[in-house]
Amino acid sequence: MGMHDWQKYFRQAYEHLKPGAWFEVQELTASALTDDGSATKESKFTEWSDHMGEAAAKRGVNVHAKDNFTGWLREAGFETIREERMKWPIGPWTKDPFWKRFGYLNMENMLQGIEGMSMRLLTLVKGWTAEEIQVFLVGVRKDLKDPKTHYYMDMWVFFLFYLCIC
Fold it and tell me: Could you tell me which of 25, 97, 122, 159 has the fewest CB atoms within 10 Å of its CB?
């Protein structure tokens, strides 16, 4: 989500690949998601996600750029595109042992990194003070740790094959 010009990136990738090459792009959605209604729009994590998306957009980063990848990749010249979606749980709420462990580690990653992810955008773009952010993040962390909420992030993987029949 740090890319400012995906279209340029895809064009450059295509131009620098040799026929028969393979290119892979992975991108997370920047939204707090649940499938079961376990979190509401009033949740602090959902609110944080919305603030971060708005602030990133004001800095020129489209946190929903993934929605345009297939079209942009075709425009760049890629023809064979395979797209896969994976749900990355945030927290150990899933029953599957692999995803339970993955979700726990993903939650810990979020808990450890959320202050760093928040400070620049929320102070620079939203005008919040560091103290306001710290207070807000108390509620966000609480939401992330709540075993009754089943947050996940969508991870999209695009497999691209540059084929040339010359």
Answer: 97
Residue 25 has φ and ψ, to the nearest 5°, of: -125, 135
Q: How far apart are CA 22 and CA 81, in angstroms?
A: 10
Grouping H, G, I as helix, E, B as strand and the rest as coil, residue 81 is strand
Query: So where are the chain's domains?
Result: 6-150
CB half-sphere exposure, 48, CA atoms < 13 A: 26
For 90, half-sphere exposure in the C-beta direction (CA atoms, 13 angstrom radius) is: 31
User: For the whole prediction, is pTM greater than 0.85?
Assistant: no
Which helix (H) or strand (E) covers residue 130, if one does?
helix 130-145
Q: Running DSSP on this structure, what letter comes out for residue 17?
A: P
pLDDT band at 20 (very low <50, low <70, confident <90, very high): confident
Using alpha carbons only, give the angle 45, 119, 137 rounded to the nearest 5 degrees.
Answer: 35
Q: How many whole angstroms separate alpha carbon 146 and alpha carbon 144?
A: 6
Residue with structure tokens 């998306």? 53
SS3 112: helix
Pair of tokens at residue 44:
């602090």
- What angle (nearest 5°) sits at the alpha carbon of residue 87, between those of residues 5 and 162? 45
